[in-house]
């Protein structure tokens, strides 16, 4: 039996207990409470992410102002560390602003016919510079079909997947970027020969601040918001994200666009 009282749902159930039965009363967290808990979690995460770089910066500033003679090497070290941490905060704030813009339902999609092939060519150049020659990058364009959507948003979603592939693939690995139309669907793939992801993490990757490997994410400048941003952009385009991965072998991230978003150029 289910009893509803305001925002609280009580579940009552008779369960076997030896040769008798006992009454089990449990409380279901309603969606309102769940959303409130998620909001609190989010604020706690943001605060934590900002506090860490701020602690480093204020630590060095304190040291620089307290000591009268600091050798040049130490000064340089302090400046480099502070610059890195400031960049990290900047990156985080930019991603937060992007997320809040995407979450605002009043913010309509700025649609046009988007040339996916041209985005991919731009991304290859960007990927090569990000990789710094440590990976082999392949580009495959099997369709000239375009997508009805926002160029800026699609470029950002694809770019996020490509930069992840590079960041989570060790030196010497391969990255494949591919665009094709199959069974009436537009398919964008990024495949890497990187570290891979264990299956239990896959359904949670698009949650804000969810990371499998905290230290690798931070070392490579990750904010933990990239895939959350990708998910929002895809929702706005009625597109889906499919992830296949094998630990130690690599991952495949595939974006599928529905037929109604395709603009055929053949
Ligand atoms: P981050 O800034 O931490 O990279 P993302 O939201 O982009 O945040 O990704 C979430 C997590 O998913 C990452 O921390 C990483 O653990 C995992 N991940 C994403 N892409 C890959 C990939 N290509 N290979 C392995 N792990 C990945």
Automatic annotation (TrEMBL):
GO BP: any one term: phosphate ion transport
Reactions performed catalytically: ATP + protein L-histidine = ADP + protein N-phospho-L-histidine
GO molecular function per UniProt: ATP binding; phosphoprotein phosphatase activity; phosphorelay sensor kinase activity
EC number(s) stated in the UniProt entry for this protein: 2.7.13.3
Domain Histidine kinase span(s) in chain numbering: 45-261
Keyword annotations of the record: ATP-binding, Cell membrane, Kinase, Membrane, Nucleotide-binding, Phosphate transport, Phosphoprotein, Transferase, Transmembrane, Transmembrane helix, Transport, Two-component regulatory system
An annotated GO cellular component: plasma membrane
Organism superkingdom: Bacteria
Compartment annotation: Cell membrane
Keyword Zinc: no
UniProt enzyme class: transferase
Function: Member of the two-component regulatory system PhoR/PhoB involved in the phosphate regulon genes expression. PhoR may function as a membrane-associated protein kinase that phosphorylates PhoB in response to environmental signals.
Protein name per the record: Phosphate regulon sensor protein PhoR
Organism taxonomic ancestry: Bacteria, Pseudomonadati, Pseudomonadota, Betaproteobacteria, Nitrosomonadales
Parent-protein start and end of this portion: 169 to 434 of 434
């Amino acid at each position: 039996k289910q009893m509803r009282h305001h925002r609280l749902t009580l579940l009552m159930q008779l369960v076997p207990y030896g040769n008798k039965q006992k009454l089990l009363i449990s409380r279901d967290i309603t969606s309102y409470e769940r959303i409130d808990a998620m909001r609190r979690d989010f604020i706690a995460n943001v605060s934590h992410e900002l506090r860490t770089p701020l602690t480093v910066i204020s630590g060095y500033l304190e040291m620089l102002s307290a000591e009268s003679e600091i050798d040049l090497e130490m000064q340089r070290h302090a400046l480099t560390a502070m610059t890195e941490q400031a960049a990290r905060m900047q990156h985080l704030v930019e991603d937060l602003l992007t997320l809040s813009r995407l979450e605002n339902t009043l913010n309509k999609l700025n649609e046009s016919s988007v040339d996916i092939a041209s985005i991919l060519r731009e991304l290859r150049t960007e990927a090569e510079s990000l990789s710094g020659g440590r990976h082999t990058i392949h580009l495959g364009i099997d369709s000239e079909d375009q997508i009805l959507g926002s160029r800026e948003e699609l470029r950002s979603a694809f770019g996020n997947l490509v930069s992840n592939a590079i960041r989570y693939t060790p030196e010497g690995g391969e990255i494949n970027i591919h665009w094709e139309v199959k069974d009436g669907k537009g398919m964008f793939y990024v495949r890497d020969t990187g570290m891979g992801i264990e299956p239990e993490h896959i359904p949670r990757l698009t949650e804000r601040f969810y990371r499998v490997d905290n230290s690798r994410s931070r070392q490579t400048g990750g904010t933990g918001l990239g895939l959350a941003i990708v998910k929002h952009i895809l929702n706005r385009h009625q597109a889906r994200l499919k992830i296949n991965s094998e630990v130690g072998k690599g991952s495949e991230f595939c974006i599928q666009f529905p037929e109604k978003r395709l603009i055929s150029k053949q």
